[in-house]
């Protein structure tokens, strides 16, 4: 008995890597394959144009289950089943009504996190109620590009949720609050650095006690990448920044165990 799968496999026979390599070289019309399609990073890491099952055979961590061994496959036993990737396209609007339209358009298009960059659409409680009209904000993640305004924006967001009968513990949100990145990008800060850390500490203490799903600060690695950093240099800047932030928050009465669940890290892709 011939199944549909058998018929499809017969119509699309398996090809070898050598066949693909020959076809790629033909398309390059004499240009060297190694120079055009193989990438070597600053750290001398070779990145091939495609990878196959055979390439993973010698990787020891492939045999590790998520939450065990090397932890390369994640620190949680459930992997990404509980908290997977989000579709987080940026939504930029200068009025609550426009933001509401963009939010519904994004949700209808498959967006699973509201990535909000507002210029004047989240200044009052009324603004947020308008912006989130018809949106079940306890069933979706929100990411606020709010910088130095993160504390008041968070307060408004939590208040708006409470008015809709949603408790803070049900919220999933993150605030793009990275004062070092702001200083690097602009050369100056809207508020004194001490005040920024005071705000981050206050919001982190509140989240730790009332809203475990809220991330109160973000470490931006992509800003270093865009300034010319290599992959490992970007990671180095992220680690150094995070250590500095932890030290500042420790001085304000927080422990690393309290801080780290409320950190988001941004990486260039």
Poorly predicted sequence stretches spanning 5 or more consecutive residues: none
Q: Reading side by side through the largest sheet, how are the strands ordered?
A: 3-4-5-6-7
Instruction: Work out the helicity level.
Output: 40-55%
- Beta-strand residue fraction: 5-15%
- Topology, number of strands: 9
The pLDDT mean sits at 91
The number of distinct helices, counting runs of at least 4 residues, comes to: 11
Structural class: alpha/beta
Largest sheet: 5 strands, parallel
Distance between the termini: 47 Å
The shape, in one word, is globular
Q: Which terms summarize this structure?
A:
269 residues; two-stranded antiparallel ribbon; 12% strand
Task: Provide structural commentary.
The protein has 269 residues and is an alpha/beta fold. Helix content is 42%, strand content 12%. It contains eleven helices and nine strands. The protein has helices at 4-11, 17-28, 33-36, 96-108, 125-131, 150-163, 179-186, 193-210, 222-226, 231-250, 256-259, and strands at residues 39-40, 46-47, 90-93, 113-118, 141-144, 172-175, 214-215, 217-220, 263-266. The chain has a five-stranded parallel beta sheet with strand order 3-4-5-6-7. Strands 1-2 form a two-stranded antiparallel ribbon. It has a two-stranded parallel sheet with strand order 8-9. The protein is globular, with a radius of gyration of 23 Å. The N and C termini lie far apart (47 Å).
């Amino acid at each position: 008995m011939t199944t549909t799968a058998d018929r499809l496999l017969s119509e699309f026979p398996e090809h070898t890597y050598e066949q693909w390599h020959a076809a790629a070289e033909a398309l390059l019309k004499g240009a060297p394959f190694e120079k055009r399609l193989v990438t070597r990073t600053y750290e001398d890491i070779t990145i091939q144009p495609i990878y196959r099952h055979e390439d993973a055979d010698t990787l020891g961590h492939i045999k590790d289950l998520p939450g065990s061994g090397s932890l390369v496959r994640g620190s949680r036993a459930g992997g990404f089943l509980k908290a997977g990737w989000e579709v987080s396209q940026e939504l930029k609007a200068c009025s609550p009504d426009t933001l509401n339209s963009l939010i519904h358009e994004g949700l209808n298009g498959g967006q699973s996190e509201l990535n909000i960059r507002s210029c004047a659409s989240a200044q009052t409680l009324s603004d947020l109620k308008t912006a989130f009209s018809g949106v079940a904000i306890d069933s979706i993640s929100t990411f606020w590009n709010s910088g130095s305004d993160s504390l008041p924006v968070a307060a408004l967001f939590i208040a708006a949720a409470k008015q809709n009968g949603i408790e803070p513990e049900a919220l999933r949100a993150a605030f793009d609050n990275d004062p070092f990145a702001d200083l690097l990008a602009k050369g100056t800060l809207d508020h004194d650095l001490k005040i920024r850390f005071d705000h981050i500490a206050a919001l982190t203490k509140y989240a730790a006690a009332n809203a475990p799903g809220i991330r109160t600060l973000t470490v931006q690695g992509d800003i270093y990448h865009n300034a010319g950093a290599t992959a490992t240099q970007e990671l180095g800047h992220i680690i150094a920044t995070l250590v500095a932030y932890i030290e500042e928050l420790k001085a304000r009465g927080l422990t690393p165990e309290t801080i780290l669940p409320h950190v988001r890290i941004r990486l260039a892709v």
